[in-house]
Amino acid sequence: xxxSIAIPLYNKSYSISRCIDSVLSQSxxxxxIIIVNDGSSDDSLSIVEYRYINEIxxxxxTIINQNNQGVSVARNNCINAxxxxxxxxxxxxxxWLPNFLEKMNELIADYPDADLYCLAHMIKNDxxxxxxxxxxxxxxxxxxxxxxxxxxxxxxxxxxxxxxxVRKASLVSIGCFPVGVVAGEDLYVWIxxxxxxxxxxxxxxxAIAHYEIDNSxxxxxNSIPYPILFFSKNKEMLCDKSLRRYLFVIFYKHFGKSLIxxxxxxxxLRLRSYLxxxx
Length: 279
Description:
By secondary structure, the chain is α/β, with parallel strands linked by helices. It has helices spanning 16-24, 44-51, 53-58, 71-81, 100-110, 149-155, 168-173, 185-196, 226-233, 241-260, 264-278; strands at residues 3-9, 31-38, 61-66, 86-89, 95-96, 114-124, 143-145, 164-167, 198-210. Strand 1, helix 1 (16-24) and strand 2 form a beta-alpha-beta unit.
């Protein structure tokens, strides 16, 4: 097995070395790293070019520079440049434990018919000393194909960036990540892959998602998640009750806090508008 590791990079000077080092420390070493610098204005790019010059010269790390166009374009450029049939996504502020790729390789070997593969993640922020395990949609003992991806995802995160591996051909078949989307572009991709094919998961906690305070997500707070917009225009694809339920969970998570900040009638109008999109 050979993996392509896709890392979109935008103003992550404080974490990019931690991210790359976690890949270079993998026990499974058959991979390439593709970094797309999305017009960073800090010294993220300089850190990569200076610290990892040997890996760049050897071809282990490839850097692609683009004007700031957003994470979807960055990920799509990673996909286009990938030399592997299987692409793992890793955000520049997250990291993997040393056995992440080893576990992913074993999962693909044992369950070869899936389009989307998921491992489990922990969460780390400046309020806790050690990473904590969030609520997942599957039991800690689960390993194999997922019977109902949408129902499981209603209970907790099954798929998210930094802990998934995707078959490249399957990504291309759905048009990759939607361009120009502010929120929910990754959720849309996981949903489309789950509609079209199988999902396999190993609940091994081998990824760490860091919740850092920066401005990279400031435009997402009051934006409509793309899955809501997409399925409001493609309601013929909403034949699965579990999918409808999952879309409501997405709505609730993203808009609960923003609705609280609105007053009375305005809040009700906003709520009815959002619900009408998926009903």
